[in-house]
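Table S4 entry, Riboflavin synthase.
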Amino acid sequence: MFTGIVEELGEIVAIEAEGDSAVLTIRGPLVTEDAVHGASIAVNGVCLTVVDAKGGTFTADAMKETLDRSSLGALEPGSKVNLERPVRLSDRLGGHLVQGHVDGVGTILSREPGECWDVVTVSLPAPLARYVVGKGSITIDGISLTVVEAGADRFSVALIPTTLSLTTLGHKKPGDPVNLEVDVVAKYVERMLGDRAAGGLVDGATGGVA
């Protein structure tokens, strides 16, 4: 589990294709300080498992499902990526609960520079629109952000100077793909309401309907 607070702007060092999968080598001196084989690191919002870590870099396997459902397949050596280690139970939850499971890929539609921030509009895949609301949370390339406005096929976010300087969104341009993860709480609520509409939840203690 992550929080969407990017720890480090890393860089793709190498990509080695292996059939329909790929091995990524990523530079990230901060996130590899305590990385061991089997650890998790979010790369542009995608939870990847560390295969090896040494010299400030780590390698991770990206399966076909990951490449197909995220923007990782479009990366190349030199690409900048947002990196975050999993949250500890003792840590403050600075952003919101992020699983590192990409729900879809959006596209940067526009950027409107402001005095101290940029307003960025992103396309929204139709199946995800019902989970995105104004002032709600969404994850873009692993960054926890607050939705400014939400429409049927797009939404906007405001990027503060810190986000612009410390993450990939500082230099993304219209036409660039971004990974999207909607608020997991919204998905659980939808599922629970759907179960109730289908007949209710059974109370295990009484055999009644909750």
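The longest strand covers residues 8-18.
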